[in-house]
């Protein structure tokens, strides 16, 4: 099946972001994409100072638009971190998924909050405004089972391993790595998660905006279960297409059967809730 990643240029005007995103979703559908993903923070600038201002409830304005365009195009639509979600007085970094009938299939709240300090390069603390999610998020399609993470979630191999145990063959991480962590780890982490679990990994970033307070790395990418980069964007606004070949995935798992060779008598990773 064809996967499309929309590397969107995000402005400070929510309505413009929504309109442009929906237009690119329609374009991707017209080119045969069955599953379309938007980047982390696609409808607002990324930064702790913006989260409260742009926050919405779910359902709300942004998710209603996503539901409508998913139904119109009869696709599976992953809404990046569609919005900072407000719920019960707390804010979450939330990704929603809508099916071809417009129904909400999954709502993933970022589990691992991005609190880092690289002296002289970047300091960022999502926990100043956001609360963490506490659950894994998997949804089914006619093609395969898909697992969701958001950006920093990708650094935690245990999470990807649990998704593999749950039968996922594709992991999608809307993300916004920056100009320090992007060149160092963006592709490396994707390839690691793909090879460790013998599945496809897709990441979708906002386009780079050098004038933004937080500059995203860009380079939305798809990696196959062999660890090969099979599609990759540059830094500009674009749509990346790739065909997900589940037969190739099955062949790789047969050739190097690590999933059946794990020493569960010696070690293990388990989901606690």
TrEMBL record:
Catalytic activity: 2-oxosuccinamate + H2O = oxaloacetate + NH4(+); 2-oxoglutaramate + H2O = 2-oxoglutarate + NH4(+)
Family: Belongs to the carbon-nitrogen hydrolase superfamily. NIT1/NIT2 family.
Any single Pfam family the record assigns to this protein: CN_hydrolase
Protein name as annotated: omega-amidase
GO terms of biological process kind: asparagine metabolic process; glutamine metabolic process; oxaloacetate metabolic process
EC numbers, comma separated: 3.5.1.3
SUPFAM superfamilies linked: Carbon-nitrogen hydrolase (SSF56317)
GO CC list: mitochondrion
Domain (CN hydrolase) ranges: 1-246
Record's keyword terms, sorted: Hydrolase
InterPro entries: C-N_Hydrolase, C-N_Hydrolase_sf, Nit1/2_C-N_Hydrolase
PROSITE patterns in the cross-refs: CN_HYDROLASE
GO terms of molecular function: omega-amidase activity
Superkingdom classification of source: Eukaryota
């Amino acid at each position: 099946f064809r996967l499309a990643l929309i590397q969107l240029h995000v402005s400070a005007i929510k309505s413009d972001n929504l309109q442009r995103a929906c237009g690119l979703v329609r374009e991707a559908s017209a080119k045969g994409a069955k599953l379309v993903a938007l980047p982390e923070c696609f409808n607002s600038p990324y930064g702790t100072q913006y989260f409260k201002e742009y926050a919405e409830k779910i359902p709300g304005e942004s998710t209603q638009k996503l539901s409508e365009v998913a139904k119109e195009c009869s696709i599976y639509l992953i809404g990046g971190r569609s919005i900072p979600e407000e719920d019960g007085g707390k804010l979450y970094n939330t990704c929603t998924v809508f099916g071809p009938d417009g129904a909400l299939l999954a709502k993933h709240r970022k589990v691992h909050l991005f609190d880092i300090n690289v002296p002289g390069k970047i300091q960022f603390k999502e926990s100043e405004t956001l609360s963490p999610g506490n659950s894994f998020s998997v949804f089914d399609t006619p093609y395969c089972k898909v697992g969701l993470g958001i950006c920093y979630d990708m650094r935690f191999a245990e999470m990807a391993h649990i998704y593999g145990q749950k039968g996922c063959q594709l992991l999608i991480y809307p993300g916004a790595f920056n100009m320090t962590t992007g060149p160092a780890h963006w592709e490396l982490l994707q390839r690691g998660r793909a090879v460790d679990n013998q599945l496809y990994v897709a990441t979708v970033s906002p386009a780079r905006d050098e004038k933004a307070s937080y500059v995203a790395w860009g380079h939305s990418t798809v990696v196959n279960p062999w660890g090969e980069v099979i599609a990759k964007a540059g830094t500009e606004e674009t749509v990346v297409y790739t065909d997900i070949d589940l037969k190739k995935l099955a062949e790789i798992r047969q050739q190097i059967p690590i999933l059946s060779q794990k020493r569960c008598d010696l070690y293990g990773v388990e989901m606690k809730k």
